[in-house]
Design a protein that fits this description.
Helix content is about 90%, strand content about 0%. With about 70 residues, it is an all-alpha fold. The protein starts with a helix and ends with a helix.
């Protein structure tokens, strides 16, 4: 049973890829995909902004500690 589940899980990306290549996506799927990509872009930019804030803070604290 576990082997069957493992084979199905391993085959799922191939099945999805073939379905995408050979069958047209509906307009609803394209809109949903576009909205999802937009959300992921916002998430990535937010994470990059937070990392840059932490980096600036760390450099500022390093300079401040050297200043004294």
């Amino acid at each position: 049973m576990y082997k069957l589940i493992a084979i199905l899980v391993a085959a799922m990306p191939v099945i999805l890829f073939l379905r995408t290549v050979f069958f047209k996506q509906s307009k609803v799927m394209k809109e949903a995909s576009s909205a999802f990509r937009k959300q992921v872009d916002y998430l990535v930019w937010t994470i990059l902004f937070l990392v840059s804030c932490v980096l600036v803070y760390s450099v500022g604290m390093l300079i401040h500690s050297m200043w004294k």
